[in-house]
Amino acid sequence: MQKPNIRPKPVKAISLADQVENNLIEYLNNNNLKAGDPLPKETELAEYLGVSRNVVREALSRLRMLGMIESKKRKGMVLSEPDLLSGVERVLYPNILSEESMKDIFELRLVLEVGMADLIFARLTEESIKSLEDIANREARDPGTNKLKTRLKYEISFHSKLYEMTGNNTLKRFQSMLLPVFNYMMEVESTLEHKPESGKISHFDLIETLKTGTPSNFRKNMREHLTPHYDRL
Amino acid sequence: MQKPNIRPKPVKAISLADQVENNLIEYLNNNNLKAGDPLPKETELAEYLGVSRNVVREALSRLRMLGMIESKKRKGMVLSEPDLLSGVERVLYPNILSEESMKDIFELRLVLEVGMADLIFARLTEESIKSLEDIANREARDPGTNKLKTRLKYEISFHSKLYEMTGNNTLKRFQSMLLPVFNYMMEVESTLEHKPESGKISHFDLIETLKTGTPSNFRKNMREHLTPHYDRL
């Protein structure tokens, strides 16, 4: 066990499964395989990569987890369109993430919501404006909005609707995955001695901007709406 | 094999490894384990989950791939801060992604670059402005900018620097991962019969805005700079 350590700094050991996984992904990419194309059999892959079937199975299991391959009845393993965000989804646990990552993610929210104005304007419909109005009206009538939990509920449903209105599924899913982190950060904010004050632009103001304004007005007003959070940068 | 199919729509089969993976993640989260905390041994986990060691090993391999656990000498397996984006990184192959996902990702770029103005202004330094100027000057002097490849090179190095200036590592890494997709989309644009024209705002104009303007000016000018891409929404 007592090996001399002459390395300047420790490097992460790459396991056999890591190597086989990398080689497999490289293989798929280099052979220009498309979704639906069949993969070689486990035994063939094991021979080709010079490793045991167990190791191949482990690497395939990882790719299956990422949605890059799936097993089809009668056809065997085929390549599939990977799920871009499933890997992120699995690790998003506020308990486990560092403060630094949480802060990064919270900032990402501020960036996305100010930046997505053009997408919203390009794709908004009367129905979607109506949904926003419903949420804002319910919020205005709710006697419980002095409670953080109630305020958060309306905040989330209003802003989630905006993401949906971008018509960009990746963006929408990204946001719903990040929600636990947003919640956590807003709960932290609420325990601060100097609580962030509400912005000058309300949800109703944002709706009015969508109806009569431009993407540029909307960016300005959304930035103003998010001021309490921006002030903490 | 001939089972009656009374399900209204097919559901994806959940493999044993998927279940064990989910149970393990749930276990880590419910027990409020933090980075650095040791995990139970493989044999203990197998007993606790009622599955074979092989299945536990497969699930652990997946978590290791996501950076959620690592093996330490003498300490055994410990929980580690997961790498938020490693799962995305692995599946980002323009060859394999659908047109729809590629379009989503390209739009995400437009959203991020217009939205990140406040982060850039909060954290810019004289050195970072100097780096942007160096890139823009080299671009202006390069005789090869009529070639797409050369133009793309400067475009990427200028915009990557802006992401770096946000001081948000998750954002910066996200961008560098998405680069292959950006490149692909810009190559597609360049083959179109009606090529998008250049925006009215140059890299030099953007630098001037960083020096003497406000985040709001910058958002406006960046939006203008990206107009050729926005026109394709």
UniProtKB/TrEMBL annotation, chains A, B:
Signal peptide: none annotated. InterPro entries: GntR_C (IPR011711), TF_FadR/GntR_C (IPR008920), Tscrpt_reg_HTH_GntR (IPR000524), WH-like_DNA-bd_sf (IPR036388), WH_DNA-bd_sf (IPR036390). It comes from the Bacteria. Residues 14-82 form the HTH gntR-type domain. This is GntR family transcriptional regulator. Keywords: DNA-binding, Transcription, Transcription regulation. It holds the Pfam family FCD. PROSITE patterns: HTH_GNTR (PS50949). PANTHER family: GLUCONATE OPERON TRANSCRIPTIONAL REPRESSOR, TRANSCRIPTIONAL REGULATOR, GNTR FAMILY. The keyword Transferase does not apply.
